[in-house]
Amino acid sequence: MSNPKLTDTLDFPSDLNVTKSLFGVGIVGLIASGIGYFLEHDQFFFSYLVNFAFFSSIALGSLFFVLVQHLTRSHWSVAIRRIPEAISSNFWIWGLFIIPLLLGMHSLYHWTHADAVAHDPVLQGKSAYLNTTFFIIRQFIYFALWSFLGYRLYNKSVEMDETGDWGLQTLLRRTSGPGLFFFGITLAFASFDWLMTLDPHWYSTIFGVYYFAMSFQGLFATLILIVLFLWKKGLLTNTIQRGHIYDLGVQLFGFTVFYAYIAFSQFLLIYYANIPEETVWYLERLSGGYEYLAYFYLFGRFVIPFIVLLPKRSKSNYNIIGSMSVLILAAHLVELYWLVMPVLDHHGFHFNWMIITTFFGLGGIFLGLFFHKFKQNKMIPVNDPQLGDSLNKH
């Protein structure tokens, strides 16, 4: 299909100083969080972990999205693909922000305490995997792989813009095939390392899929909000069309259902088996005020979005789809808080201001990195051979 005439400016406006503003917010948030470290260093590390897992999930969802689009030769997503490409291309920088977690391992992870391991047969049995040296090595492997994939996919896409060499599509697919396999393995083990090992006596074989489901649902909400932001600034209003928003809404709805299926499957199996060392993990998170957080994310990322997004028209209504995206991302953050914080606050829910400062600190840097990369090249892959099909959506 022939490409329709592009009527939008495809370069990000140089006078739109969103990058500086975001980096400014991020720096202020990190400085405030740094002050909090000296006041309550354990609280700092746990708050940091919640937000690091949150923004990392968006980046991981972006990388998975790009891998799948290349592997399946999907055309609907070409007009919006540069957004997740730009997000996932920054892994080599974002990986630096795991350093505070490595420095705070002793505060975060019980299995790093030699005296605890010496008196705990379970931790002794897991010590070949749960040890500080191997943990750090694994983080290096994860981010090295993600950085390679994200950087390569972005650079080759931009190279196709500049050269018009459609043969690069074959290279992108050849990278995406094995890349998707190794991505799945590393994402699962990263979720084990960051979140599941906070309580080393508890485990779930579905936890990696659970974190993936959260991540991919959160990605579509993020993509929708970024597109709506670009439209508000008068960018790509004729290039990214109502059909693209509808497709994103369909994907958001689909992965809302998928997330609920995975999360409920994990809960149901543990509830039905009723094994004490497994059920205690849920009992800690369904009492002491944490149950209200569970209700919030249950309704915020499944019940309400499911009901609201079920009608066809709602997926094309910008106000509805935008508000649902905000609600899902808020519920995503609350759920990660619900997963992490009971390890620190055993006796019940206790809000601390550092969850806010670390959110703005890491969020400002994360989004600043995205817009810094996004404005360096065309905002869509202008020489992708499937761009014409993507632009002719209605």
TrEMBL record:
<keyword id="KW-0472">Membrane</keyword>
<feature type="transmembrane region" description="Helical">
    <location>
        <begin position="351"/>
        <end position="371"/>
    </location>
</feature>
<feature type="transmembrane region" description="Helical">
    <location>
        <begin position="179"/>
        <end position="197"/>
    </location>
</feature>
<keyword id="KW-1133">Transmembrane helix</keyword>
<protein>
    <submittedName>
        <fullName>Quinol:cytochrome c oxidoreductase quinone-binding subunit 2</fullName>
    </submittedName>
</protein>
<feature type="transmembrane region" description="Helical">
    <location>
        <begin position="209"/>
        <end position="231"/>
    </location>
</feature>
<feature type="transmembrane region" description="Helical">
    <location>
        <begin position="252"/>
        <end position="272"/>
    </location>
</feature>
<feature type="transmembrane region" description="Helical">
    <location>
        <begin position="21"/>
        <end position="39"/>
    </location>
</feature>
<feature type="transmembrane region" description="Helical">
    <location>
        <begin position="129"/>
        <end position="151"/>
    </location>
</feature>
<feature type="transmembrane region" description="Helical">
    <location>
        <begin position="89"/>
        <end position="109"/>
    </location>
</feature>
<feature type="transmembrane region" description="Helical">
    <location>
        <begin position="292"/>
        <end position="311"/>
    </location>
</feature>
<feature type="transmembrane region" description="Helical">
    <location>
        <begin position="45"/>
        <end position="68"/>
    </location>
</feature>
<feature type="transmembrane region" description="Helical">
    <location>
        <begin position="318"/>
        <end position="339"/>
    </location>
</feature>
<keyword id="KW-0812">Transmembrane</keyword>
